[in-house]
Amino acid sequence: MPKSAPSLPARPISASRGRLRPAGGLWSLGAVVIAVLVLAPILAVGWMALDPRDNIWPHLIATVLPRYLINTAVLTGGVGLLASAIGAGAAWLVVMYRFPGHRILQWLLLLPLAIPAYVGAYALTDFLDYSGPMQTAMRGAFGWASARDYWFPEIRSREAAVVVLSAALYPYIYLITRAALREQSGASYEVARALGTGPWALVWRVGLPLARPAIAAGAAIAMMETVADFGVVDHFGVQTLTTGIFSTWLSGGNAGGAAQLALVILGIVLALLMVEKLSRRRVQYYQSARQARPVQAQRLKGAAGWVATLACVLPVALGFVLPVAVMGGHALANPEAWFGRGLGLALWHTILTGGAAAAITVTLALFMVYGVRLSGQRLPRAVLPLTTLGYAAPGAVLAVGILIPLAGLDHALADTVLALTGYDPGLLLTGSAFAIILAYVVRFFAIAQGASDAAFGRVPPSLPMAARSLGRTPGGVLRSLYLPLMRGSVGSALLLVFVDCVKELPATLLLRPFNFETLATRTQEKASLENLGDASPAALLVCAVGLVAVAILARADAARADLARSR
């Protein structure tokens, strides 16, 4: 989940020769170098798009670009509305009311985060397609002989993509909105009820206006993920800007045109971020300085309670139960698929690339945040928030910005080694997992940066100042003081980055070397051939890893809720 721009402390100090002075010149330089590394692929996309070898803007505008833009806009708007309705509605129910199963449902509503959206697309198609269980049961029950005897909605469609993406992405809105509703004072709702406000008016006139910033932030995340999606739209045959990058680059062989489409995607994502911020610029949301009285949940009895239960069960059923059940059914029906050729190697590649990327990302984030805090200089402080743009950039966009410049560097390096030694080393960078790991580092740097900044902020400033006054170097303070106190946060950041690397599909598809599979690419490849029996083990392994992230989020959220109740 994207982190907000970190707040930085005042200029730090260190002890030397009995006096205090600014410290951290080398750390500051290292922080700037890391920031340049993270931002380089995004800058490369802009450079290639504005100065391509073959300018195909006129061709794109006259042929496919309008269709790409319309489909992307409809998907993004549809997912934003539907996911907001589901996420905000579920958050309102679990915070404001007590109904059968509400205690367990408030955590079950997070489970779709563990399921990649493309796995949900494969499962929904298999379940609802002509040969799937739903239509087969309908034909058997009503005696229909063929599809001409009845009407059934088209499964591989833009509307189905909206439903699948909304079911996968609504937890972002639910999690943020639920936290916002819990933090509000119950006095506002009590006054509204005393003035005769009914349940629906309470939602529209009090609850939603107060929670609007949270809903907008969650919706922006869901819409950015929709713009970045490839697996769902590719499976449903919806042509968007992301699929356009694949077709223009891989099928058309035009890297400049792919960069131009990537720049359009990046512009849309940045526009979504700006709109979300501008929508809240003139509106202020304050809470009383005194301790606020928590919201008192109302008990729903009878039919109303069961309707609320059903409203919370349906998103979980569609976003988690259905994909797991369909993939689990195929895995049980095809047990030999667990020993299929290539699955073990795909698992090893996933662990290798994800683990290496997680370790490198967290290490660089720790170094950068510590360097900025240590030096307090303007340049590192200015570039630190910009490094979060990598998370906003879709994987396909980063792949364009990484592979093309890296391929040029790779060829130059191989030619140099060949000229000096007579030995041809081949493609060392693009011919290995290096490009994938680099894309993961850039894509998920914001997660590690946010976790690192929050962890540093929880350490009292007096402790590092005392260590420095006793002669500890900046590196020694980091190793012996900060890291032992931050082990929990560092571990969580490693797991979260690793989980996101496991689920990443577009960047992996574009950057992987020949015959290099991960669990995500194996799932997509087998499912594209309508072979869910072989795709199911890899898909279930990806989902199992995703459950780790959900468990971390649930644990952190429960800790925050316990802390709020104890105050």
UniProtKB/TrEMBL annotation:
Where is the chain membrane-spanning? 26-48, 68-95, 107-125, 160-181, 202-224, 257-275, 303-326, 346-370, 382-407, 427-448, 481-499, 538-558
- State the superkingdom: Bacteria
Keywords in alphabetical order? Cell inner membrane, Cell membrane, Membrane, Transmembrane, Transmembrane helix, Transport
Work out whether the entry's keyword set contains GTP-binding. no
Major localisation: membrane
Which Pfam families does this chain map to? Answer: BPD_transp_1
Query: What is the protein's name according to its record?
Result: Iron ABC transporter permease
Supply the source organism for this entry. Answer: Thioclava nitratireducens
